[in-house]
């Protein structure tokens, strides 16, 4: 373990930081204690598959992992997006990844610095200037000449950034993309298969500057003409983006026509420009396009050669403070105040705060801000870490009665080469850095009575992947996986001839840690913890059973609190167990046979062949294929320890079929429980928002009858609620009718409605209305379907239709 870094000018406490609060489960606490006693020992395990990229990576920090479990990789032709899924319908042990791409624009981006005719004349003038300082500077600057002409084209992406969860129309993350030719756009994945560009911020910002005569305020003095080369450079630099970062979701107040105020969600996007200005865009949520832009304010940072920025968001005494952390290529780092008008409960700094002021020529490559809780001061604090060369600069910000306390220092001795990428797990404050030689460092902050120190250890990727070079890393939202961009390293002292860029994954948590985190989660949403559920899925598929301690802990949770989250977790475990017990098919149907079948004249269709011969040939071929598959994909130890019977074990078929039927019955029982709980919620909304004998699109009477039809279901809350609703309906039934034959659709099944003429309609799992249209939405894991909201729907029904899947918490498309 390397030496820890302390606060500058202070002595560290000899005691280590306090341990995290207990998980509440004896067995899982013992596992966590064992890990702590091992000195934060981390064992990285490779996770298949490795995803090969079609093009080389481009830009700085080419890898980013979103809150909705999508990995973006900036390449020379597109942004490759890898979405991690915890598929309950697949029995394969590999990680399930859905791959899409955001293509780079075909046309080059030309920044708007004036009228087109005048710009063309100025470019010709500067290109043919007799002054070499003008002509050569103009010809070699790719900002002035993005199309390149004789130079190679500037295609690819420089940087990408994910918004928080809940920003697009489906409640997922938006993707801000910056191309190599300085075009800044925002994209959304609305139908899962295609990315749509919602807005081009470079074009809009250029139009704003053009209308303002390229002055930030009306009080600014007019500058020179466009024909002046310095003015030509200034107009380009003031709209050349360097980095952009999203803020957290904040609340704004909107005034209605009747002078009532309602809270509207909004998000901020800060864009750092080459001339050190920062444009802060404010978007109303859900972000739909240009019409969702609320405002755009420009801040002057005053930092020479800015290189990176990050949001500083701090919560103190239920007050949220915000600011922007800006780093320079010369070394300084400081926080700038951001005045957010009309943002509810938000405050900012009175003046800029300098975190590091020395011009030591160590460029700031990456900045991460992590909110933490100080165990000694008993208050929240902010940990700011920045990669500067081969070192990590850290700063602890703490607000007390005396004001803002700043403790800073550097962590040295991490890498022998400059840090190429840095990522942070915001749940526990762990920081990961990597250099190009395939070495990753894990830094764990430990609080002292004054500030903090870091325990760090080395992760050699060469022991996991072999000899590799690393180009970027990103940690998953819950800290279960680390994604790494790799190429081949040196072999026998020689560099590889070709570079194959791959995105590979390693585990950072064990199965016990992932299970404990899922059981004690404050989020209580399976979709937001896909990386943890994937570790659990992998373990169950390998062992073909659910560990006993996990079953007992989950049963205790269900008995103690009864939250539907734990029922959904139980349903997830049963589904994975069911898939692990399924017998793998002996022959892949789409794979062609490599054996050339020799057909005799007697076996031709014209001569006729007996069925016995055909059956014998088929059985022989199937047995050969199964033996080949068994020999290739299964070790001897696996076959010996496998409790599942083989296909030749005729006596073991019946017990396995009984187990499958038992697990299937448990799955149906859990699904029915979740359905009833959601039906109670829907009926509660109906009771609160309807008048006497009011008809709605929800089949209220059918839902009530369905809940009361089971004699074994005795829920006093449901019976009281149904009694109040039936009294309000005043003997009205309001049945649904088939749109094809006008017959009544009885409510006898929660999944579908069948009329007397045999017409079948699937039911919306959010409102239980029959979907009698050709277009409907579906859950991410294809669990259920839901109808689209209509303009006639009241607000409370639209809120119901915005909910996630009641079985797996996945969003609905």
TrEMBL record:
Sequence ranges assigned to domain Transcription factor IIIC 90kDa subunit N-terminal in this UniProt record: 65-509
Domain DUF5921, residue spans: 510-587
Positions of region (Disordered): 1-23, 600-653
One GO process term, biological-process aspect: transcription initiation at RNA polymerase III promoter
GO CC annotations, alphabetized: transcription factor TFIIIC complex
Transmembrane segments: none
Alphabetical list of InterPro entries matching this protein: DUF5921, GTF3C4, TFIIIC_delta_N, TFIIIC_Znf, WD40_repeat_dom_sf
Bias kind Polar residues: ranges: 619-628
Domain Transcription factor IIIC putative zinc-finger as annotated: residue spans: 730-780
Protein name: General transcription factor IIIC subunit 4
Organism of provenance: Calidris pygmaea
